[in-house]
Design a protein that fits this description.
Number of strands: 14
Order of helices and strands: EEEHEEHEHHHEHEHEEHEHEEHEH
Number of helices: 11
Number of domains: 2
Length: 303
């Protein structure tokens, strides 16, 4: 059952089409990811769905409620963690949870909310004393105080170290286990592949592909990828080699997608010897979402 329905969503700023005809659905109890580089339209899309930014055209409904017509009702149904949140430095973590609950005229069990994000031991701490990862978990806790049916997380792990990132992944998975849907934006491929049940890939304000992480990899990255550096590789010839499904290049970095890595690699090295071009920093690995993005756009996500 679709919890969120987005139809032909559009937002422009002058001649810039920030979001250009985006349509998708989010199911109940689903972790739904929106993947793309900075400027792809991810945040703008989320802010329109959250009733934080006016919609130029198109419709969004959450649990059957039209976001444009009933923004206050929608805001009571959802939880939002923004890319950047300013928190009160002179309140403890517990006091912040109480304060945010009061915005919804709710009385909450502070320990229960903090337990959901593994922050009970920091209930009496002030914000400046927290690490970056702990602050992000507090932000997620504040997004949960109204018991939302869906939680929106906008690049929740940006700037965090790997350990803090994985702690927040646990929080996101526990949120879904409680029956809530989670919609998150990210430009971390590993994060999207690990967490998300369904993915949209956005670029230049449009959806360029969607599916489960596994389906996207199978469709666009093959079973294996051969990645190497070369300033003079003859891409057209590489495309015609045995077992090569596709070749994408980002400046001097090349990606060869194949279902038979051994055959493709032997053919590539024979071609390099015959045409006298250098193959450097070569690696053979399984296909990833990073490869999917390269295959679709011809560039790496964080370039």
């Amino acid at each position: 059952m679709a919890l969120i329905e987005v139809k032909d969503l559009r937002k422009s700023y002058g001649n810039l089409k920030a979001v250009d005809g985006v349509s998708f659905e989010v199911a109940e109890s689903q972790i739904f990811g929106i993947l793309g580089p900075n400027g792809a339209g991810k945040t703008t899309t989320l802010e329109m769905i959250e009733a934080l930014r006016p919609i130029d055209s198109g419709t969004v409904t959450i649990a059957g409620v039209d976001v444009s017509k009933h923004p206050k009702e929608v805001k009571n149904m959802i939880g939002v963690q923004l890319q950047s949140t300013s928190l009160f430095n002179h309140l403890t973590v517990a006091e912040l949870v109480d304060l945010f609950a009061s915005f919804y005229n709710r009385t909450v069990d502070v320990a229960e909310i903090l337990n959901e994000v593994s922050m009970v031991d920091k209930a009496g701490s002030y914000i400046p004393a927290l690490s970056g990862g702990q602050k992000q978990r507090v932000s997620v806790a504040l997004a949960l105080v109204n018991d939302p049916i869906v939680v929106f997380l906008d690049e929740p792990t940006t700037g965090l170290d790997p350990q803090a990132r994985r702690h927040l992944w646990d929080v996101i998975e526990r949120t879904r286990e409680k029956g809530k849907s989670v919609v998150l934006t990210t430009h971390y491929m590993e994060e999207a592949e690990t967490l998300c049940d369904w993915l949209l890939v956005m670029d230049h304000g449009t959806i360029i592909e969607s599916g489960t992480p596994r389906d996207l990899i199978q469709r666009h990255a093959g079973d294996s990828a051969i990645e190497f550096m070369s300033d003079s590789a003859p891409v057209d010839k590489i495309k015609d080699l045995p077992a090569v499904d596709a070749v994408k290049s980002a400046e001097s970095r090349h990606f060869v997608f194949t279902k038979d890595a051994h055959q493709a690699l032997v053919a590539l090295m024979e071609l390099a010897k015959r045409d006298a071009f250098k193959v450097e920093q070569l690696q053979v690995r399984g296909g990833t979402l990073e490869d999917v993005f390269v295959s679709l756009t011809g560039r790496r996500l964080l370039d």
